[in-house]
Amino acid sequence: MTFFPEVLERYAEAHTKPESDVLRELNRETHARVLMPQMLSGHLQGQFIRMMSLMLRPKYALEIGTFTGYSAICLCEGLQENGKLFTIDVNEELQEMALRYFEKSGMSHKIDFRIGMAAAIIPTLHVALDLVFIDADKLNYGLYYDLVFDKVRPGGIILADNVLWSGKVVEESQDAETIALKAFSDKVQRDERVDNVLLTLRDGLMVIRKK
Fold first, then answer.
1. Which domains are delineated in the chain?
2. pTM for this structure?
3. Contacts of 193 (CB under 8 A, 6+ apart)
4. pLDDT tens digit string along 83-131?
5. CB 75 within 8 A of CB 90
6. Cα–chain center distance at 156
7. pLDDT by residue (tens digit) across 126-145?
8. Rounded to whole angstroms, how far apart are CA atoms 180 and 141?
9. What is the DSSP letter of 3?
10. What is the CA radius of gyration of the chain?
């Protein structure tokens, strides 16, 4: 999930604002109890997401793919006082864990956590979004982009995780998820309505700004 040598990764973490106690505990519990813990954003990416939120000061933010709640807590850090984060996940088995850490973080009153299919829930959100984080099923990244785009205000930001997909996007043999992620990145690259930069942070993070 990272392309940097581990020693440089540790150096970067040592020179990045530390995880809060709640995030550190959530990180540990996710790795101890949850299948595929590498899906968690983690320290560096979590602090980048937090920084984006602090800079944008969103009133409304959307996360597609909650997992155990780590990135949701990071997104909440920059919300306006009366701001709201909508976070969507299809896996109800992790709901209790995420809700427990939302409460520990003191952010539960700012989080609207919905279990269900994102493609069905997104059209029901009648707000102007300042910040969107896409980190769900890779086959539907293009669909989620289309569904949220008109809801994002001009100057708003869309973040899309895992767009390098452990380097598979440049390999000759590719599975359906890799093909979908490549199609998504190509779609964004051709979209004249946005500015975009693909960061080699962790597993690849696409930063998209709506003009």
1. 6-210 (3.40.50.150)
2. 0.96
3. 149, 210, 211
4. 999 999 999 999 999 999 999 999 999 999 999 999 999 999 999 999 9
5. no
6. 15
7. 999 999 999 999 999 999 99
8. 7
9. -
10. 16
